[in-house]
Design brief:
425 residues; Rossmann fold; 56% helix; two-stranded antiparallel ribbon; Arc Repressor Mutant, subunit A; 5-stranded parallel β-sheet; alpha/beta
Length: 425
């Protein structure tokens, strides 16, 4: 959340509000206005266009790391169908019991359908337009029956789409319901006629695991679209589109109040991850406001990096493929201790892969395990990576070693305020 007020953004930066926070985008009537397409989007758009025109069907796997834009693309597809007055069912697969997800998909599909059987049931028998408990139980006794019902429902409202987000979470469900879910989808995509689009979004590692466990499903994927990192040019274009949507006055340049150098530096630190890039730039805008500056140049950006310097240096000690898990333990779980399954879920990777990565980090000394097998950051590293206000609290609680009070300069006090503000974001 931004710590600056809209009036400060307007006065100093010429913006209505921070264009890089999630809430700003959610409020837009047309989210497509701030979306910057990559080359893979041409493939997705082509498949969606054929399904929307009714000339073909498509089963697409949309994969990428957390923050790569999987969910955003599904929401944009949903928006495209709505704008075209077509039906799309968006289903987020959260970390819940398997039957709940199956129930939700079956109920949503049935409620959207316009089948003759459903109409007769209402008119002749006076039954409700939703599935009865008995019907739901019967469907859940057979993944094939459930898949066929979904296809019939989608076909009755075709052109239509079934958009399944965060499918990797189904890998953590009870084995019975995990099998039921993926077998149900396999039956649906095997039978679907022209005019139906099914997209499942998940992490790359989970897709590889899915391919091992359910090859009968992945063999039916028409196209796997793996989202690549942003190039510097794509990052600049993305930032420019977002800034233009929230401008309050005519800018000096298309990237004003940011500099191109800041955007490129932020994109390389974020390793092309859109979510991490926008988070860095969001903090940079807030720091500019705190410093009463009307430009986000490298001086401002360096202040942002200084506030997270110890954490970044600690993460660089880990091999590239293991930094995601280490960062999650440090930032999402305050250094631990935390169990294996929670790390896997947060990292969006199979539990077996999470185990091998965490054990490797234990061998390097970057993580340790307690008696119950939970992982945590060693105290010597954790203290170095603690956030500023926690460090200050520890210093206050220490016995005074000197009676003379050291004078702190105004510049140091201002930097401390910046670091505290960033920690609250």
């Amino acid at each position: 959340m931004s710590t600056a007020s809209p009036s400060q953004y307007y006065r100093l930066l010429g913006l209505h509000r921070n264009p890089f926070i999630r809430s700003s985008i959610i409020e837009l009537e047309d989210p497509d206005a701030v979306f910057n397409k990559q080359w893979v989007d041409d493939v997705l758009d082509s498949l969606a266009a054929e399904a929307m025109s009714g000339v073909a069907s498509a089963f697409v796997a949309l994969t990428g790391p957390p923050g790569s834009g999987r969910s955003l693309r599904l929401h944009l597809l949903n928006y495209s169908y709505t704008r075209a007055d077509l039906e799309a069912i968006y289903q987020e697969v959260s970390v819940v019991e398997g039957p709940d997800i199956v129930d939700s998909i079956l109920i949503s599909s049935y409620e959207r359908s316009r089948s003759v059987a459903k109409a007769l049931k209402k008119v002749l028998l006076g039954m409700p337009e939703s599935l009865t408990d008995e019907e739901l139980i019967r469907l859940k006794s057979s993944p094939a029956d459930a898949g066929r019902m979904i296809v019939k429902a989608l076909d009755s409202i075709a052109p239509s789409a079934l958009l399944l987000d965060d499918v990797h979470n189904m890998m953590y469900a009870d084995e019975r319901w995990s099998f039921f879910f993926f077998e149900m989808i396999r039956e649906a995509v095997s039978l679907m006629p022209e005019g139906i689009l099914v997209v499942m979004a998940m992490s790359d590692e989970s897709y590889e695991e899915l391919d091992k466990r359910f090859p009968a499903l992945t063999s039916r994927v028409h196209e796997r679209i793996s989202l690549p990192p942003l190039t510097d040019e794509e990052a600049i274009s993305l930032v420019s589109r977002r800034l233009s949507r929230f401008r309050a006055r005519e800018p000096e340049s298309p990237l004003d109040p940011l500099t191109e150098e800041v955007i490129i530096s932020a994109n390389r630190i974020a390793e092309g991850n859109p979510s991490k890039l926008l988070n860095l730039l969001s903090k940079s805008l807030d720091v500019a406001v705190i410093l009463s500056r009307n430009k986000v140049d490298m001086y401002v950006f360096d202040k942002v990096l200084d506030a997270d310097k110890e954490t970044m240096e600690y993460l660089k000690k880990a091999p590239q493929k293991m930094r995601r898990e280490l960062e999650i333990i440090l930032k999402s779980f305050n250094g631990g201790p935390i169990g294996l399954e929670k790390v896997a879920i947060e990292s969006e990777i199979p539990i077996s892969l999470a185990y091998s990565r965490l054990e490797a980090l234990v061998v390097t000394g970057l993580l340790e395990k307690d008696r119950s097998g939970r992982y945590f950051v060693p105290k010597e590293y954790l203290r170095a990576a603690l956030m500023p206000e926690e460090k200050e609290k520890e210093e206050i609680e220490k016995p005074r070693e000197r009676k003379t009070k050291k004078r702190i300069s105004k510049s140091v006090l201002k930097l401390k305020r910046i670091r505290k503000s960033l920690w609250r974001l």
